[in-house]
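Predict structure. Chain length: 196.
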Amino acid sequence: MSIYKAKEFNIPKIEGISEKQIEEHLKLYNGYVTHTNKILEQLSKLDKEEGDSYLRSELQRRLGFEFCGMKNHEYYFGALEGGLTPPPEKSLFVEAINKQYGGAKEAKIELEKIAMSRGSGWTILYWDKNAERFQMTWVDEHHLGHLSSLDIIIAIDMWEHAFMVDYLPGEKKKYFESYLEAINWEKIENWFKQAI
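Prediction complete.
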């Protein structure tokens, strides 16, 4: 029983992030999809019988890690599809960034402060439609620290597995720069439009 299917991403060559790095990272993403399905299958079996409540609760706890690992990576790789593309003219995303941060450069500085945090995790830019503003945060692991009910606009994987083929841990700023310089901003614009 496979509820979720691994997505395929059309990612061209990226300056600063090797094909080997992307290949290895995609294997990890596929593992999250596989494990999400396995956990859901096990939970379904436990629901049909009087199962071990300890096992059920542990599977439920693990589901958040695997599921969010799967979904975060879909934003991460999805933003790279099609290669570097500037935002469209009259971009609503750029307009909102300029309004809140004063410009793309200023927003990038704020995002970088979070990305350069010690430890492994995710740097995520969300849109809060109720407050009509962006929120940036650090998500520990894949599921600890998400801002509930907010839409993900950009998800940058800052775990070492995302850059270890190309960079040492102390060089993660180079990786961060390479990732941002490879984003297809039309995809970001589309996610932003869906969020608002």
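Summary: Residues 19-47 form the longest helix (29 residues).
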